[in-house]
From TrEMBL:
GO biological process: actin filament bundle assembly
Entry-linked Pfam families: CH
Keywords noted in UniProt: Actin-binding, Membrane, Repeat, Transmembrane, Transmembrane helix
GO terms for MF: actin filament binding
Domain Calponin-homology (CH) stretches: 9-130
Protein name: Calponin-homology (CH) domain-containing protein
Tree of life domain: Eukaryota
Subunit composition and interactions: Interacts with F-actin.
SMART domains: CH (SM00033)
Coiled coil region boundaries: none
TM helices/strands, residue ranges: 93-112, 118-135
Length: 149
């Protein structure tokens, strides 16, 4: 059984608002922010893994060593892979249960939703960050199951 989720304009607007709000002062992301919710820029920006790593650090500061994130303007496939690996490891470190997802699958999903308005389980990944970022000062992090179908 395959589940597909169509992202609505309001969902995308919410994700973009959250990212623009919490990462506005990030030195690396300043060249990408603010993201315009009326475009699909969000889907392009997330592909290199930097945004995912930064969001994890917003949720639980210090989880990802920022020095380990590849932040060149153009990343080669190996550097992108390192960032995506780092984001998955960091997600696990803050209590997310990542089931049946590896770097290759994550990258393929990110590529898929950068070209199309619909995607399946990637929404769950973004929802995890939304939940963490909405936690007041992140004083108590509870594990969240991240399940990909």
């Amino acid at each position: 059984m395959t589940l597909l989720h169509t992202i609505s304009g309001s969902e995308k607007t919410s994700y973009v608002a959250l990212i623009n709000n919490y990462l506005a002062e990030d030195q690396f992301l300043k060249r990408y922010l603010p993201i315009d919710p009326s475009t699909n820029d969000l889907f392009e920006i997330v592909k290199d893994g930097v945004l995912l790593c930064k969001l994890i650090n917003v949720a639980v500061p210090g989880t990802t060593d920022e020095r380990a994130i590849n932040t060149k303007r153009v990343l080669n496939p190996w550097e992108r892979n390192e960032n995506l690996t780092l984001s998955l490891i960091s997600a696990k470190a803050i209590g997310c249960t990542v089931v049946n997802i590896g770097v290759y699958m994550l990258f393929q999903l990110l590529v898929l939703f950068s070209f199309q308005e619909y995607f399946g389980p990637v929404t769950s990944f973004l929802i995890v960050f939304s939940v963490f970022c909405s936690m007041p000062k992140y004083k108590e992090v509870k594990p969240i199951n991240l399940i990909f179908y």
